[in-house]
TrEMBL record, chains A, B:
Name of this chain's protein: Transcriptional regulator, LacI family
Pfam families in UniProt: LacI (PF00356), Peripla_BP_3 (PF13377)
Keywords annotated in UniProt: DNA-binding, Transcription, Transcription regulation
Domain of life: Bacteria
Biological source species: Evansella cellulosilytica (strain ATCC 21833 / DSM 2522 / FERM P-1141 / JCM 9156 / N-4)
Domain HTH lacI-type intervals: 1-55
Length: 353, 353
DNA sequence: CTGAAAGCGCTTACAG
DNA sequence: CTGAAAGCGCTTACAG
């Protein structure tokens, strides 16, 4: 059914149909009602392509997940093996939250997952084809910066979630990141409050902003409490399960052992749990472990892992809201926001004072 | 950049541009090369809306996730609480796999998650607006049947994943389900091979096809081995963690206890683990547990859960492939397929012979 | 082999 | 307040 058909059926012009659908003023209530009734009755919906071509918005945004393995460096939200990320604990809530928030704001969400530089061309083509009004990028690494900056320069509306680097207002984009620093502060304050004075850390790969921020929060909080970090209790991991495992073996081989270890993400905490079990130690009796991310599995570990929740769903929602706002108001954007982190207290930390 | 601009730039007509893009025959290689080079150079991509409006395909399918809570009955793939399903162990791999397979076949995927009957109208409007060439539905319940049948009758291409009922070739749609029966057979054969003769079962809600099929496979395999099901060892659960917990408490209160319990999904197995721990029993020393679904957390349970893997990624890929095939060949479809289930042997079952 | 032109179904100034 | 008409950027018969 075309608007023309509907128009004939009820004796108005196509223009009138369009006008009531698009909420033009100055239409008598009677006309409006008649049209609305007919729309309902005949199940009419304007052809999306025709609308878009004629200049209206198609109310479509894209959520673009980048999992491009280009440099051998594993991003902490990505899997380490070559299997595709069909159930990635980080991407999934983001995808769902973006889609959900978009729907709430009466938008549609296109999803595109790029695994290779080849796929990146397809991503670019989504913009060139004018399929969307804006896009949210997740999982960005260095490799994609060039493309993203180019898109921003072309005036496309872009929101970036959890970017490794924050480019602040230099670029007209929306940057939403978790407050990693705050998360670490909360974690360490909690451990100190429990009486821990000897706290070790397994970091993520420190060329990642998130890893660095988590380390910064850790260090600052330690020194605020007058505590020092024993060098033997520092392990530079890379956000993988294996590095959590290795980190524990490294730290617990030191002469003086810490009473708690801050593990910079939950994935590494899994490895840490394994190593601790193998050494024959008990959590939290012999050593307290605190994680980061509040990933899906953390509550299923034994014992359930105390961790820092950075709600990627909240981050995704906020990014979506800001993106659609900027699309609708066609305003220039240079937004940087951090989303609060909260401590999730479970059973992997013991009070020792 | 429009095709006309490009055309002028290299001295051909718009038609020629279109023809090389759409791979028309009878274009001299020289012309083709010239156009291709210009497309590359100027980053030209045909406007998606214009293409679609002019009659070409927009290569877009939708993945529609239904999580409509209408009847108080919890579908086994849905969460039991009211929080949105941002990390559902079932939906996420489906979404990712559909998107991935679509991209591989050079299609785009729109994602829409419906939580209410209100949202269902938006879903219908996606079809009415002609935004897509076809759609894959996941999580269907009775409530949506009416809409889906209507869409099928309107000749929309539809694939249904894990439908509660299979409507066979009565409806021109694609039905892809896991082979639940086969999965149960494999699980029980495995337990029998380990020497178990006394096997209990916690079922899902039996108005669900999947629950019934899993039960059927269980019963048939038992009787094929000349084993009987003690009525006290049967518990009618509903696929929720709580019912797994209740199921164990019910079954282990019987006079004669089983040596193994077949728990019809991993979510219930989590509850079962809890109940068993509370009773003071050890898995698998005191009782063997086998699950179903191979959900994300199953390998993180203690001990890691032996379970049946029904790859929803495979199901989703197959559905996507068949859907796009049917879109491209515009063929009538009435396809019903089952995807193999495989046993994932971990550490929750003990050999007792 | 290739260009000119109609047409896809809307939206939006422009008239009235 | 509302209709007629141009135009959005393609695709596809139709000519040549």
């Amino acid at each position: 059914m075309r608007s023309e058909d509907l128009a004939k059926l009820i004796g108005v012009s196509r223009s009138t149909i369009t006008r009531v659908i698009n909420n033009y003023p100055d239409i008598p209530q009677a006309t409006r009602d008649k049209v609305l009734k007919a729309i309902e009755e005949y199940n009419y919906a304007p052809n999306a392509s025709a609308r878009k071509l004629a200049g209206a918005t198609n109310k479509m945004i894209a959520i673009i997940v980048l999992d491009v393995k280009d440099d051998g460096v594993t991003h902490h939200v990505k899997t380490t093996d070559d299997t595709l990320i069909y159930n990635n604990p980080f991407f999934s809530p983001v995808i769902n939250a973006v889609s959900d928030q978009a729907n709430k704001m009466d938008y549609y969400a296109l999803i595109s997952i790029a695994y290779s530089k080849e796929d990146l061309k397809k991503v670019e083509s989504i913009f060139n084809q004018k399929m969307i009004e804006g896009a949210i990028f997740v999982g960005t690494q260095e490799a994609e910066n060039e493309l993203i900056f180019k898109l921003i320069k072309q005036n496309h509306k872009i929101a970036l979630i959890d970017t490794n680097e924050i480019y602040s207002k230099k670029h007209d984009a929306i940057y939403i990141n978790p407050d990693n620093f705050e998360g670490s502060v909360k974690a360490i304050n909690y451990l100190v409050e429990l009486g821990h004075k000897n706290i070790g850390i397994i970091t993520g790969n420190l060329n990642k902003l998130s890893a660095q921020e988590r380390l910064d929060g850790f260090k600052e909080t330690l020194s605020r409490h007058g505590l020092v970090l024993n060098c033997d209790h520092f392990y530079h991991g890379d956000f993988t399960e294996n590095s959590g495992y290795d980190g524990v073996n490294h730290i617990l081989r030191a002469h003086s052992k810490p009473t708690a270890i801050f593990v910079s993400n939950d994935t590494m905490a899994i490895g840490a749990y394994k190593a601790i079990a193998e050494i024959g130690l008990k959590i939290p009796e012999d050593i307290s472990i605190i994680g980061f991310d509040n990933s899906f599995i953390s509550s299923y570990l034994t014992p359930p892992l105390t961790t820092v929740d950075i709600s990627f769903a909240d981050i995704a929602k906020r990014a979506t809201t800001l993106l659609i706002d900027s699309v609708e108001n066609n305003k220039k954007v240079g937004i940087v926001e951090k989303i609060h982190a909260t401590l999730i207290e479970r059973e992997s930390c013991k009070r020792i004072n």
